[in-house]
Design a protein that fits this description.
By secondary structure, this protein is an alpha/beta fold. The protein is built from twelve helices and 13 strands. It has a domain of about 180 residues: Vaccinia Virus protein VP39 (Rossmann fold, 3-Layer(aba) Sandwich).
């Protein structure tokens, strides 16, 4: 257990939560996990870094056992149909301008391999790294090249041109050591693409909804970054970066949390402006439907929140210092 900041190593930190336990699944996902009781875990905040972290952030053995024992198998509960924020589509569209037929790409913590399958047609090599055995078995059956190891045990024959880390860094113990390993398998033109939870989450950070905070802080998320802290960490390891917040959940999802202390049933409901049937059929005096009006309000809401640095996620493109990307 450690009470020093993983980024600046300061011990001038504040205890902000004392009861983080094994998290319950988010309503839009099914997690196969949490069969044994766990000790409550403390969450601390470094104000200098605008950064929250769990006291277990240095416990490599605990974290490795957690994933190797299939305690984190994520199966998104996504219905067919339109989504205002399509995670899979956004991820591939973000990197496509930087992919070529010569690109060697590595997806660390590739999970179910959805991103790799989408990226494969655009690159020379698309490899994954994953330690959850169930995911590894499924990916290999699908013909995806995946390394079942930790990064410190990984020695590729060539460095990679692009390394993506979607929803990964928040899970990694000793994150500074990890980034040094990322540098080892990179070259002086390697691009990093990172996506992770934003500590300035609207419901946890801005509105301070206690029921949501109990969901937000989970034992398998060791860190909660801000734009300030992520940029600071990457600079410490020789990377320049551009970082922006994204707001995934809709205005109506936030209404649900504000007034009912719970989110919506599926990922589609969470990201779209959603009303129960009677309200969805209401027409405004100008002939516009109520959902259409709220979609316009939702666009404004997302814009104003992210402009202030508030959002569910941070997305980042990083490159070695000295490279003009």
């Amino acid at each position: 257990m450690s009470t020093r900041c993983p980024i600046c190593e300061s011990r001038q930190i504040t205890l902000i939560q004392n009861d983080v336990k094994a998290g319950s699944p988010y309503r839009g996902q099914a997690l196969e996990a949490f069969k044994v009781p766990r000790t409550p875990i403390k969450v601390f905040r470094c104000k200098d870094c605008v950064f929250d972290f769990l006291e277990t952030w240095e416990d490599t053995e605990k974290v490795t056992q957690f994933y190797e024992n299939n305690h984190y198998i994520c199966r998104p509960n996504i219905d067919p149909g339109h989504r205002k924020y399509d995670e899979a589509l956004v991820r591939i569209e973000r990197v496509k301008p930087y992919l070529t037929s010569k690109t060697r790409l590595l997806d660390i913590g590739c999970g179910d391999g959805d991103f790799l399958k989408r990226a494969k047609p655009y690159v020379k090599k698309a490899h994954g790294m994953e330690i959850t055995k169930k995911h590894v078995e499924d990916l290999r059956q699908d013909g995806i090249s995946v390394w079942e190891c930790l990064i410190n045990d990984f020695f590729p024959d060539k460095p990679y041109d692009m390394i993506v880390m979607h929803a990964l860094l928040e899970h990694v113990p000793r994150v500074s050591d990890f980034l040094e390993e990322v540098k080892r398998i990179s070259h002086d033109r390697t691009l990093l693409f990172i996506e992770l939870p934003n500590v300035r989450d609207p419901l946890a950070y801005y509105f301070g909804i206690e029921a949501y905070r109990k969901f937000f802080y989970r034992e398998y998320h060791l860190y909660y970054f801000s734009e300030v802290s992520l940029k600071k960490l990457l600079a410490k390891h020789g990377f320049h970066s551009e970082i922006q917040p994204l707001l995934v959940a809709s205005l109506t999802n936030h209404f649900n949390w504000l007034h009912q202390n719970r989110g919506q049933e599926t990922t589609n409901d969470m990201v779209n402006v959603t009303f129960p049937a009677p309200l969805a059929e209401i027409t405004m005096p100008n002939g516009e439907s109520l959902p259409s009006l709220f979609n316009r309000l939702d666009d404004i809401y997302r814009h104003e929140m992210t402009r202030a640095g508030i959002g569910d996620l941070l997305v980042c493109r990083a490159w070695p210092a000295g490279l003009n990307p």
